[in-house]
């Protein structure tokens, strides 16, 4: 029995030594990850997000202080009731030239932006701000910074990912609005001649597309308002949607949406996807050492 006990003790000692050796290798690899690879990933993220940030403000060739103006033709494969050209300069629409064919009379109405007006695309502005915040987080941990734990890296990655997800969501999820909110927003006052009371427009970003939706309205007669039910908040309202403005009750009779692809918006969304993947991959590598964290402060 004594021999068996000695053998067992010897085996336990061998296992303990092996465990210690394995732990030492893990610690060395983990320290390399914290010191070298984390900063390599942070540098990649900075480069990608700087490129994304530049997409929001492309300068005019030869005029570095002036943003490039781009013209986009609005169109639809299913209808021709609305046509137009929008001029985009960074996050601002500086000009719009829109033709709308009125449903009842087939009359074509022509509207342009007033000379003294520009329309800021809040979605683009917000997305750019979130990218700036993500870059500030990355810049606060330069190559001289020493990460001490995996939890510290994860905390930074979570914060960066939160800003990137918010940036992406602003471009992929247009704001919901009620019809009265749309009727009273500043866009309605942008046009020359002024929009008539039976017409409303909405401009928004959806993924890599700049979209224009035109609502044609008609006033509900008093004897038809017994089934009146105001529509809620939505990105796109359908024909039949009702709302109240002042003492008038109105209904959407026709809806037309035209759009155009903005290539740099597509580039930006790709940059967001790549950056989020890099963040997640780094978090996954950190999690490989989760068992090692039992042996050191996390």
Overall description:
By secondary structure, the chain is an alpha+beta fold. The chain contains five helices and twelve strands. The chain has helices at 2-55, 122-139, 150-172, 179-184, 263-288, and strands spanning 59-60, 63-67, 69-74, 82-89, 92-101, 108-113, 119-120, 191-192, 199-206, 209-219, 242-245, 248-261. Strands 3, 4, 5, 6, 7 and 8 form a six-stranded antiparallel sheet that branches. Strand 4 (82-89) and strand 5 (92-101) form a beta hairpin. Helix 1 packs across helix 2 and helix 1 (2-55) runs antiparallel to helix 5. The longest helix is centred in the first third of the chain and has 54 residues, at 2-55. The chain is elongated and about 90 Å long. The protein starts with a helix and ends in a 10-residue tail after the last helix. The mean pLDDT is 83.
Share in helix = 40-55%
| Mean pLDDT reading | 83
**Rg on CA atoms, Å:** 29 Å
Q: What's the number of extended β-strand segments?
A: 12
What's the SSE pattern? HEEEEEEEHHHEEEEEH
Q: Which term fits the overall shape? A: elongated
Number of helices: 5
First-to-last CA distance: 43 Å
Main beta-sheet annotation: 6 strands, antiparallel
Q: Which structural category do the helix and sheet elements fall into?
A: alpha+beta
What is the beta-strand fraction?
25-35%
Poorly predicted parts: none
Q: Please, what is the oligomeric state?
A: single chain
